[in-house]
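Lab meeting, item 3. Inverse folding demo.
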């Protein structure tokens, strides 16, 4: 290891090893593909970049030399298809190893990568393609997303190039009753593809589509550096908004370097370890935990190309591959709690982190009791890298997001722009004058929403929190989700966290319902755990549970039991859909 990350950052620490200062230095021509991936490949070619496997039994260990070779071949192939600097390319590749070839190749070309989830429907896809004038889509053949693309081609005039990737597995292969894979004649999956010649070996034949694997295998592995600028757009995500159409979040190359704060000081990755962030590549969390910061640290990432999450599989993989650092959402930790966790070999695991939803204290305590590890919580958005966190060498407080990271000046502000007092709820805002590395460039093609979020020297996150006397931040909820009841401001996040501690509650969403006396009454929509059934007795028990653990005025006066909660295509709970449904009931559907 040569500590190439120190080329791009200056750091200072206190006597306890806690990061106190973090400044980013980004050369004008910085390019993650050339200056990180290729640099490591040239100087340390055998260093592991990624261990990849799938449920079918296919396994690969990619070195940085491998990543350079395959990304160069991919860049040549995409260039042959007319993709060039400044083009916007949608990438829908689940957890296939080809994603890393494509991401690095697009960076080298100076094209803008637009990752997306395979769960898009026709409306979602059309909106995204036309909103950004997407030129090409690189898409998995697994599942039905290619059907969605074909169904709306006539509505997407900018989309001229379709490229299909056959993953030869992805956990979607059918099994016989005896557990053997049911493979169509002429196709190969699983262990047969694990050798070197198995990489990009499975072809894909579909009318109107180019076959990625065949094209890349045939492409030259010699690629000349393209002149690119760090200030150019590099990456764009569609935000997982809970209402309205998602916004297009545009990032430049400094975003990659800013994720050093994520990987080095939160995930605690190290060059001789293996980091596992469980995330589909259609979500921003994938580049948070499986790409930029980890490779800047010259570290190896682990990827499991599965379809459905099974906690027993994940726990087994930790021991089998010697995973050292793990990051996944609280929901996945909760599912692991349902397993006999002591029966698994987790001895290699050194560090655990989480983000994205409520980390309730019983989960925090359970993980500590059974693994000896603290779960370090963090916070960020599609528009940012990590911004608030319990960093390495900090002392987490269960349920707290942590403190602002040294890269950013973060404050909790009132609506008039003044700073909130200790314990007072306000909006989390990040100072952007001058514009720091990692914060989005803009909402692409939307000056009004950009101005709404970025004004008076601050980026307004739309998330609310309060800070205690020691500077720890405590999440309350999205601005639109805060419930104003009888003069109180009630955050759904805290109530959901408390309710999730009850054995009967598998999932929960807290919203406000119009109330003639209180303004809004607190309502909990609850998905019950297996073995529990709805009853008035259970409702009273849950209400008492919340009263005993929070201020009494926060308890849900209404508890509704549901089979599932409404979600965005990115999996986030749509509280707005619950509110709209309730308001529709009150007005007889006239909303």
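The presenter then showed the designed sequence:
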């Amino acid at each position: 290891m040569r500590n190439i990350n120190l080329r791009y950052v200056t750091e200072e620490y206190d006597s306890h090893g806690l990061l106190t200062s973090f400044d980013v230095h980004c050369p004008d021509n910085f390019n993650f593909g050339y200056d990180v991936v290729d640099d490591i490949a040239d100087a340390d070619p055998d260093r592991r970049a990624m261990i990849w496997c799938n449920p079918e039994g296919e396994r690969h260990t990619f070195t940085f030399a491998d990543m350079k070779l395959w990304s160069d071949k991919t860049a040549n192939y995409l260039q042959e298809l007319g993709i060039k600097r400044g083009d916007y390319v949608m990438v829908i590749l689940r957890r296939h190893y080809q994603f890393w070839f494509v991401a690095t190749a697009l960076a080298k070309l100076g094209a803008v990568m637009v990752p997306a989830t395979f769960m898009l429907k026709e409306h979602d896809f059309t909106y995204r393609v036309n909103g950004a004038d997407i030129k090409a889509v690189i898409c998995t053949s697994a599942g039905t997303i290619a059907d969605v693309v074909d169904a709306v081609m006539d509505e997407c005039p900018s989309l001229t190039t379709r490229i299909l990737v056959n993953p030869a597995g992805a956990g979607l292969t059918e099994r016989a009753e005896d557990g053997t894979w049911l493979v169509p004649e002429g196709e190969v999956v699983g262990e047969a593809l694990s050798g070197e010649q198995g990489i990009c070996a499975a072809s894909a034949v579909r009318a109107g589509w180019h076959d990625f694997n065949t094209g890349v295998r045939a492409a030259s592995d010699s690629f000349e550096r393209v002149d690119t600028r760090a200030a150019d757009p590099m990456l764009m995500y569609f935000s997982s908004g809970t209402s309205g159409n998602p916004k297009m979040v545009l990032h430049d190359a400094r975003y990659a370097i800013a994720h050093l704060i994520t990987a080095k000081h939160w995930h605690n990755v190290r060059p001789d370890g293996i980091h596992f962030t469980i995330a589909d590549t259609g979500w921003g969390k994938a580049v948070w935990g499986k790409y930029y910061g980890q490779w800047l640290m010259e570290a190896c990432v682990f990827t499991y190309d599965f379809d459905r999450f099974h906690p027993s599989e994940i726990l087994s993989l930790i021991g089998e591959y010697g995973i050292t650092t793990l990051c996944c959402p609280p929901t996945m930790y909760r599912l692991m709690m349902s397993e006999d966790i002591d029966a698994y070999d987790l001895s290699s695991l050194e560090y655990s982190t989480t983000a994205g939803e409520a980390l309730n204290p019983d989960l925090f305590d359970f993980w500590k009791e059974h693994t000896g590890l603290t779960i370090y919580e963090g916070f960020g958005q599609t528009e940012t890298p990590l911004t608030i966190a319990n960093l390495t060498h900090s002392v987490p407080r269960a349920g707290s997001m942590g403190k602002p990271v040294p890269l950013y000046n973060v404050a909790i502000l009132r609506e008039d722009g003044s700073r909130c007092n200790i314990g007072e709820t306000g909006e989390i805002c990040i100072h952007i004058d001058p514009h720091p590395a990692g914060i989005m460039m803009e909402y692409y093609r939307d000056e009004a929403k950009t101005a709404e979020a970025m004004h008076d020297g601050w980026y307004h996150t739309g998330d609310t929190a309060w800070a205690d006397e020691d500077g720890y931040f405590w999440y309350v909820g999205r601005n639109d989700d805060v419930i104003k009841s009888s003069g109180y401001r009630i955050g759904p996040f805290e109530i959901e966290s408390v309710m999730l501690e009850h054995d009967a509650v598998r999932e929960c969403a807290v919203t406000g319902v119009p109330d003639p006396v209180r303004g809004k009454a607190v309502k909990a929509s609850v998905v019950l755990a297996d073995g529990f059934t709805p009853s008035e007795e259970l409702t009273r028990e849950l209400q008492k549970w919340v009263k005993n653990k929070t201020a009494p005025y926060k308890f849900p006066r209404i508890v509704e039991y549901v089979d599932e909660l409404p979600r965005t295509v990115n999996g986030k709970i749509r509280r707005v859909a619950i509110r709209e449904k309730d308001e529709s009931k009150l007005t007889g559907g006239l909303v």
